[in-house]
Amino acid sequence: MTTTVIERKWHSTTEVAEMLGFGLSKTKMLVLTGEIRSVKVGRNRRILPAWVDEYIQRVSADAEGWVA
């Protein structure tokens, strides 16, 4: 019998907050403002790993373009 490992396809807002090192309220605000894309499944928000990567790339690109 073969064992199948199910990989996560999406994350909760709490998990994304932990990954980014942000507080839950900041992460929820980023989701509500659309800075981090999400989908609503029932009463919960879910975020694809690609959307977290997209947010990180956008923020880092903005930081690189910033000149002091």
Question: Would you summarize the structure shown here?
Answer:
With 68 residues, this protein is of the alpha+beta class.
Could you explain the architecture of this structure?
The chain is α+β, with helices and mostly antiparallel strands and 68 residues long. It is built from 3 helices and 3 strands; from the N terminus they run E-H-H-E-E-H. Helices cover 50% and strands 13% of the residues. It has a 3-stranded antiparallel beta sheet.
Give the tags.
68 residues, alpha+beta, three-stranded antiparallel beta sheet, 50% helix
Major sheet: order of its strands? 1-3-2
Tertiary shape: globular
Report helical residue fraction. Answer: 40-55%
Q: Write down the Rg.
A: 15 Å
Q: What is the strand content? A: 5-15%
Structural class: alpha+beta
Strand segment count:
3
Average of per-residue pLDDT values: 91
State the order of secondary-structure elements, H for helix, E for strand: EHHEEH
Tally of alpha and pi helices: 3
Spatial gap, N to C terminus: 60 Å
In the predicted model, the low-confidence regions spanning at least 5 consecutive residues are: none
